[in-house]
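Re: beginner question about structure tokens

> Can someone show what the tokenized structure looks like for a real chain? I only ever see the sequence side.

Sure, here's an example I had lying around. Input first:
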Amino acid sequence: MKNYVLIFLSILLFTTCNKEVQTDVVSVAKNKILVNNTPYFIKGICYHPVPKGSNKRSFKSIDQDLKLMQDAGINTIRVYEPIAEVAILNKLEKAGIKVIIGFGYKQDGKNDLFSGSYLNYIEKFKNHKAILMWELGNEYNYHPEWFDGDILNWYNVMDKAAVAIHKIDSNHPVATAHGELPDAIAYEKGKNIDVWGMNVYRWDNPEEIFMQWQKISSKPMYLSEAGSDSYMTIAKDGFEKGINEKAQAAATSKILSKIVANKDKGNGVTLFSFTDGLWKAGNNNQQDIGGWAPNSSGVPYDGSPNEEFWGIVDINRKKKEVFSIVKNVYSSLDKK
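And the corresponding structure tokens:
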């Protein structure tokens, strides 16, 4: 009997170890992102679920949110700070959704670059199947004031962090979310970045970014932000002033069509964003117009970001008109 027990325990131990070995390997080859050697196209959404009345992220609605994401055909979320809860990562994995984990520079010493604690996070979660990539910063090139007035300081931190990550994790690429196309200095300084994400707001047509990127790099790229809000500050291009879901849907449809048409050059998009953010302007208990974002004059169709109106669902998880646009585009990609 003891021998049978020992055999059972040996099989259990082997299965457990073997499961760890089967962790997805995410790599880059030429201009593509690969998961287990298969090209991976990001059908994504930016996800920062802050509840009404708060300014802090909460995952209380994660089950409802994941069902909506699955319905929309989403396969990837991008978060602006690491998810420290194993249970949430497990839910993402079970739902078939991968996550791009973003690290900030200074976040009170919690999984940030300044303290070096981001490496502890990577060491802990590098074998989790939900992880797609590690991403450094978000549009930091717009904020030299955060780096003693010299953006080169950020590029140096970014590249050193990429080197440090590569030393402890060879299974996931390192990305950055850059505001628009990087200039020659940014690109040269970020020589150890594997994937360049770009936050691109060029009205309803981001197509030129793909050709511009090909002229300067053969590395993989994706649009780390793109999209439109559902509020028109002014009447323009046939869309009425005020809450206007049709404007958001029309712009998003055109943006996604250009991204799909250039899928040989890019690796997809994490559309901004999943839910409206009532914490961004005015009273956290209500939806306010206004808000500010750098380099946002290209936001369709009024050139104004209206930061609290960007969700494909509202704060109560009611689907907006744009939801069906996203669903149709993302789902159609599975049929090709």
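Each token stands for a local structural state, so reading them left to right follows the chain. Residues 2-21 form the longest helix (20 residues).
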